Amino acid sequence: MCGIAGWVDFQRDLREQVSTVRTMVATLANRGPDDEDVWADERAALGFRRLAVIDLAGSRQPARAEEDGRTLAVLVYNGEVYNFRQLRAELASRGHRFRTAGDTEVVLRSYLEWGPACVDRLDGMFAFAVWDPRAEQLMLARDRLGIKPLFYSRLGEGIAFASEPKALLAHPLIDAVVDTEGLAELLTYISAPGKAVYRDIAEVEPGQVVLVRRDAMEKRRYWSVTSREHTDDFETTVETVRHLLSESVAAELVSDVPLCTLLSGGLDSSAIAAFAGMASPEKARTFSVEFEGQETTFRRDHWHQDNDAPFALEVAGHLGTDHEPVRLRTADMVDPIVALATLHAQDLPTPIPDMDRSLYLLLRSVRERSTVALMGEIADELFGGYQSFRDPSLLSSGNFPWVAMGLRKSPLGRSTGLLDTSLLTRVDVPGFSRDHYATAVAATPWLDGEDEQARLMRQTGHLHLTHWLPLLLARDDRLGMAVGLELRVPYCDHRLVDYVFNIPWQMKNADGMEKSVLRAAVADLLPPSVLKRKKSPFPVTQDPGYGQLLREQFDAVMTDPSSPVRPLLNEQASTELFRARRPVESTGWGERRDVEMVLQLDSWLRQYQVRLEV
């Protein structure tokens, strides 16, 4: 797992610009604490930071393929290709020779053998760039689900690319400008394909290849989820899901460094832990997160029906894992250093910063003992675990279900209660999301002959996979790599995704509970309490003291005349809260989220020197 960055220019000599690429690469140090290098020729400069996971002594990058003293291609690559051994054998049979034992050289040789079509043969999570000096062509590629990130910015007669926006913003020709559309995307909380909030930065889309030549840039879609008739009965469907998931977990256990599983005690992560234990001869290691004192102070709310900790312990005991709970304190959640670290990791404010910080703190603790962790992300998107799959009013809202849910309480946008009304009117979160919703619906791969309900549920699943899932994968990647931890997501195996996407909703909801097929697939592996447990999101602190700490930070912003967020605030609402002199309401999506957004915006505008053109 690594960080990559580079610059291609068809006019200037980039051998004289190596320092710029080194500066870009330096911003990605957390992604790759083990090694660093930059390669350059006249037209291209490619940089790399390495987190060594496979072939620790070899597989250095940028990786070059040479013949008779001539450079054929240069690769910088972030990710893991799980079928690299099979590909290596095939390439060797075609005459390729290998000097290393990892997957990096396999990706490079795959490009030499099959060109840009090599992506069709790669199974895993990846984002890479190949500079081909023979054709003067740069290839950018991203895995099918978009697990690994890759951003770029057009620069006159060239292009710069990087794993994260911060690396592009370190380039002297790229400014941190956010316009009305970018701010709308930030506040709407949808992933607009190809967008990156910053005006001058774009993102390679999941399942996409971008080819850049002197006179053209071409984008090719090499994979997307497809619709087809599901003919398997329930028992066959359950068996197939079990097989595909167990195979995915087994493939993702390959590692030359310590590996573990994140375990919440919910169905999704518990299934991963069970399959990991079955596939590995070594005793599995698991980690969970809990908040100090929550075993006695936990209160049910709309999202959380029960406390994770007892379920995680029960699953760990049932599976016989070496389990370690990570306990977090309220003070850690509002520590300015932690807050800045999570903001810097993602390069943007988010609507759920406390969730981001608790995940960051969990991953930071896990990194002290492991370098790779498996997690249960995207099972809800695949199997229909969210309320947004079940609430008819959300499904028929004419908007993304999760956006419609937020607009019920905040008509101008979630987490915006303290922002200036005229600003929010210009940004127009409801209109922005409705426009993108119409485009997203039109892109749904329909299946002929389906009735209206089946079409609606297919559409809902597709919306979650294409406009919600990318947000979660981006969060996981960035927070994991901020501490040098590689996160793997077995549910993102494209064969599993393609199969489950086409399972009819009646079958996914066969027993009246969410994720019926997944429950049946692991019914013999997990305790009954976990199999019957309702969906519970990643935990957040319920400590009233959190609200007092938020109050102190909000007051600091309100009394700072140099605060960059002050001109963006609703003067009446923010002044009333400031004068109230009480702890911020620390539950739900109301006041707590509004204050957290103000604090994040203030820090973001300061740290990134953002120029808002709204």
UniProtKB/TrEMBL annotation:
Reactions mediated catalytically = L-aspartate + L-glutamine + ATP + H2O = L-asparagine + L-glutamate + AMP + diphosphate + H(+)
* GO terms, biological process: asparagine biosynthetic process
Is the keyword Cell membrane assigned to this protein? no
- What GO cellular component is one of the record's annotations? cytosol
Q: Which biological pathway?
A: Amino-acid biosynthesis; L-asparagine biosynthesis; L-asparagine from L-aspartate (L-Gln route): step 1/1
Checking SUPFAM superfamilies in the record gives:
Adenine nucleotide alpha hydrolases-like, N-terminal nucleophile aminohydrolases (Ntn hydrolases)
Q: Which InterPro entries match?
A: Asn_synth_AEB (IPR006426), Asn_synthase (IPR001962), ASN_synthetase/amidase (IPR051786), AsnB_N (IPR033738), GATase_2_dom (IPR017932), Ntn_hydrolases_N (IPR029055), Rossmann-like_a/b/a_fold (IPR014729)
- Assigned protein family: Belongs to the asparagine synthetase family.
- Stated name of the protein: asparagine synthase (glutamine-hydrolyzing)
Provenance organism: Actinoalloteichus hoggarensis
Give the taxonomic lineage as stored in the record.
Bacteria, Bacillati, Actinomycetota, Actinomycetes, Pseudonocardiales
